[in-house]
Amino acid sequence: MKVFKILKTVFQSAAAGLFLLSVVLCGVMAEEPAEAAYFTMISAIIGVCAWALVGIFLISAANGTAQKIGHGLTVSAYAVGLTVALLNIEFSTCAVIMLIAVIMLALYYLCTLVMEIMKRSFPCEEDPNEDVRIVRIREWKKIMEEGIISAEEYEKKRCEILGIKPEEKSE
Q: Which of 16, 34, 85, 148 would disulfide-bridge 95, Cβ 3.0–4.6 Å?
């Protein structure tokens, strides 16, 4: 599982770096069009980069909704890049770099999929420190030990976090 986490990070970083390199090179290597068209192109390049970067940062968020939005933004920005790359693949080095970036992103999602399958297949191998419920229970226990809440309040909150009824708990 750790190997896939490392690979996932490497693929995500490579995809982001290659994407930005491709987009920047497209802006630098562009023929000299009319001034208005040039500023439009630069604005589009900055927009797509910002779009992809916001998506990549949101993927790293702790909030599940933010992660989903991040994945959507990232994939859509890469889709725009892939479309441009496929249209210009025979003329531009930038297009080849973009194609490699999209492949890296696909490998990132493949690692994510493999990790999810492994997590469901071997649930006993999960690290308890990564379980949000356990982290929350530990935080509530610390609050109880500090005397802020009573043992009964802690137990009620623990049962709520675990999704069990207080009557069903075993002692």
A: 85
Q: Length of the chain in residues, anyone?
A: 171
Report d(CA 31, CA 36) in Å as an integer: 13
Chain segment 89-98, per-residue pLDDT in tens: 776 777 788 8
- Residue boundaries of the structural domains of the chain: 2-123, 128-164
Query: Which phi and psi angles does 87 have, rounded to 5°?
Result: -75, -25
Residue 37 CA to its chain's centroid (Å): 33
For the chain, how big is the Rg over CA atoms in Å?
23
* Chain center to CA of 76: 13
DSSP character string of 18-47? HHHHHHHHHHHS-----HHHHHHHHHHHHH
Q: Give the confidence band of 150 by pLDDT, cuts at 50, 70, 90.
A: very high
Q: Quick one: tokens of 146? A: 């500090």
